[in-house]
Every structure is written in structure tokens, then in C-alpha cells.
Amino acid sequence: MIRLTNIDKVYRTSTIETLALHDINMDVKEGAFLAVMGPSGSGKSTLLNIMGLLDDPSDGDLQVDGQSIKNMDDKKLARLRNRSFGFVFQSYHLINDLTVLDNVELPLIYRKISSAERRRKALAALEKVGLSARTKHFPTQLSGGQCQRVAIARAIVGEPDIILADEPTGNLDSAMSNEIIDILINLNKNEKTTIVMVTHNQEMADKTERIIRLHDGSQVA
Asked: Most buried among 6, 20, 146, 155, using CB within 10 Å?
């Protein structure tokens, strides 16, 4: 589903060059649930951003569903990103002025579907994460765990093939963390959604089927 071949990522300024990733080679197969671990600064989030077409590699090749992204223009990349990927972030990135339902609908605005269909899909996504009763609430009225559930609903509303989750339990206590990881496990098992999750939490990583470890931008396991 995702194949990275000899991926490097270098950040350059006028005075310094930083090698964020070096010679990454890995496959993410359909239906997999992977964890990416490593110390701060090891390149975990950079790797996730490249996988999700949010950042370009400096060298190497990235393929999604057998298609190399090398010659794709911005419109094609945006279309592939919107249809194939759902994103979950540590800080939720919800819009406080919008209701829960409106936040979940957002990724569908760029698709050619009716407002009624957007609403139907958003309600179905919220039901999957157990928040059907909170559709009219605003993010500021929710707990951290509930906000992360909304973020997951927003990630899955477009029925993506792949969810990329960057420290989805990083701001949560252990009870809330277990609730979130259980939702992800359920999506993986029952919806066959492929998931790649960056985490510092070994307990959460142990619940996935495979752990990728990074150190100083290189894959060590």
C-alpha cells in the first residue's frame, strides 16, 4: 500500500544542513497496524509527513498503491491525500468555532457530494467513535479524550485506506489512551483500515502488530 525506497530528507538553511531521514526502506501492507518509535528528533513525524504526502522526500521514491509520487503535480497529490489518507494529531487540530459535527464534515467539503451526504457520513463516523450524543457540542465543551475521538471521526469520515496518527494518545491519561487505541484497533480489525501510528508509549506500541524504530533519522529495527 505504501512503499518507501531509499528515502532521505534533508532540511537546509543558509548556514546549516540537517539530515532528518536517511535511507529509509519499508513497506506498509494493506490492513497493517504499525507503530513508529524512537527518541525525540529521530525523524518519526517527518517520516509520517512524507508517507501522508504532507512533505516531499529529498531523495528516494515513495509509492502509494503502486503509484510513484515523483511526477505528480500539486493537484494530483492533494487529490490522493484527500481520498487515501486520514490524519490524527496529538493536538487534535479541531476548530473551536465549529460544532463537533461540522468539524467532522470538513474533509468532505472538497468532494463533490451533497451537504446531506456529508452530514450522513459525519454522523456515521461519530457513531463509530461513540460520540453520537455530542454532535452539537463545541470542542471547548469536551474532554481531551472526546476531542481525540472527534479527530478520529474526522480522519475516517472520508473512508480513507490509511490512517496516519501522530502521537494520538500523547496528551491523554492512561484510561483515555486505552480508549483511543481500542478505537484504532477496532478500525483496523473491523474496517480493515491500514494504520501507521507514531508513539513514545511502549504499552500502546505493543498493541500493534509491528514496531518500526528510528534513531537519528535511520531505521534500526
From this structure: 155
